[in-house]
Amino acid sequence: MAKKQPKLDANGYRKFGIRDSVAYAAGDLGCNMSFALKSTMAIFWTQFMKMDLWYALLLIIVQVWDAINDPLIGSIIDADRRKYKRNKFLAYIWAGSIGLIVGGACCFLPFPNAPTWAKFIIFIAGYVVWDAFYTVANVPYGSLLSLISNDVKDRASLSAWRSVGSIFGNMLPMVILPFIIYDKDNNLIGERVFIAALIMGILGFFCFQFMIKNTTIRVETNIELSEEAPKFNVFKAFANFIKNRPAVGATIAAMGMFIGMQGAATAVTVVFQSYFKNVQISGIIQLFAMIPIVLFTPLARKAVARFGKKELATFGSICSMAAGLGLFIVMPDNTGLDLILYVVFQLIFSLGLGIYSTVSWAMMGDAIDYNEWKTGTREEGTVYSLHSFFRKLAQGIGPSLVLVIMVAFGYVGANEGNQVWEVAVNMRYLVAATYMFSAILQFIGLGLVYNLDKKTLAKMNEELGRNTEEAQIEA
Q1: Alpha carbons 208 and 144: distance in angstroms, whole number
Q2: For residue 115, which of 237, 249, 399, 443 sits 20 to 30 Å off, Cα-Cα?
Q3: 278: Cα separation from own chain's centroid
Q4: Can you say whether the dihedral through the CA atoms of 192, 193, 198, 199 is positive or negative?
Q5: Is residue 443 part of a domain?
């Protein structure tokens, strides 16, 4: 029996379909198999490795590496003019996926009795190894969205499915791991975190391989091999990024999102350890809060076509701000109603975050197009890597600042899951404040800075399409 041939589009490529969306989701699943454990890092290094404020200092130090790592690798990818069998982005993703098999585990080497100077080396070396391979895989992965399809609805579908991959990538550490890595007294078992990180690295590798095999590039980028071709200028590319309002707005929003997700993560764990006194249920409640994201994802494509990405995302940030206010409502003496209110406002916050997250990557794809529209060059790798750098800055500085505030409010890492009641209450308010600050940043980035509303986006796509046609005619 002859193998069924796929349907082709006008340019001879396989038509865009569910295979593309599922493959792209698998890529973010692979990323999150490595990245999701980062939310456990603060608890690991403060409670198991006994580093307390030293961890906040170390996290800021490694951001210096991030400052070099992300833009450097992004510029290397953009400047790479070699011809690859399929696509250079896919080639870099393959290389990064190899390193991530052990990269994540390097951040959780369990040596709690090592001297402080040795712990410094273990943390910095482990983080540098993990972050380098993560960037090699993640920067080109994010850039792929704008090359898989140039159709607005297709990109919305890819962005939504990427959120699905992210959700499932977070489910394993969020729901299953609390039952494995904490003992009956709500204390972390560090050795189990290390083993879990190794297993997740292997799972992530297979996810990346599935994505690479099933990805079709439909938006061709011209590779100039002539010696007369202009040399890539990273400083000019950075200046273009600063002038790129959609990229800056989307980056501010993403920084807000990660301050909320990563910054509050340590305080949330302490809330369930010492306030609700049941850390095992934390994953189940956070999974429950993801229900709005799951429900909205299938509707994203039609919603974008009707309302526009900027408009939807801005509405989402307003929902999150309302939920942030609600989280300040704390019942005295931790009644059952308190947990119910916490879950309800988490659901509302998640709804707002879900609306934004399902279109966030499509918005960055449009920002890359905007760079081409205004400057004549795409610079996918640099635009995305700078966006990734500022996201990582939020992921590093956010938890560091929150940890400093936690210590100022009485948190002691050596107490593990047994903080005094006043400290537990302070952590409850700190979570609410972090979420509120996160939502405000999202609103500023999406509502006030990002300028590609539905009308402007249509104009940009029309003009870019006309320019592409003219270039083809001239060729």
Answers
A1: 13
A2: 399
A3: 27
A4: positive
A5: yes
Distance CA 112, CA 115 (A): 8
- pLDDT (tens digit per residue) in 16-43: 888 888 889 888 888 888 777 777 787 7
Q: CA distances (Å), 26 to each of 137, 158, 169, 366, 421, in order?
A: 13, 11, 9, 22, 42
Residue 4 lies in a domain: no
User: What's the total number of domains in the chain?
Assistant: 1
Residue 378 clears pLDDT 80, i.e. is over it? no
What is the extent of the structural domain holding 65? 18-222+229-474
Task: Return the number of other C-beta atoms located less than 10 Å from residue 374's C-beta.
Answer: 14
Task: Please name the residue that has the structure tokens 């540098």.
Answer: 128
| Best CA proximity match to 75, nearest among 263, 260, 236 | 236
Residue predicted with more confidence, 103 or 53: 103
Q: Please tell me the least confidently modeled range out of 89-103, 135-149, 428-442.
A: 135-149
Cα torsion angle, 401, 285, 169, 256, sign: negative
Q: Is residue 8 included in any domain, yes or no? A: no
What's the pTM?
0.67
Q: Does residue 83 sit in helix, strand or coil?
A: coil
Domain holding 36: CATH number?
1.20.1250.20
Sign of CA dihedral 272, 276, 282, 285: negative
In the prediction, which pLDDT does 223 show?
42
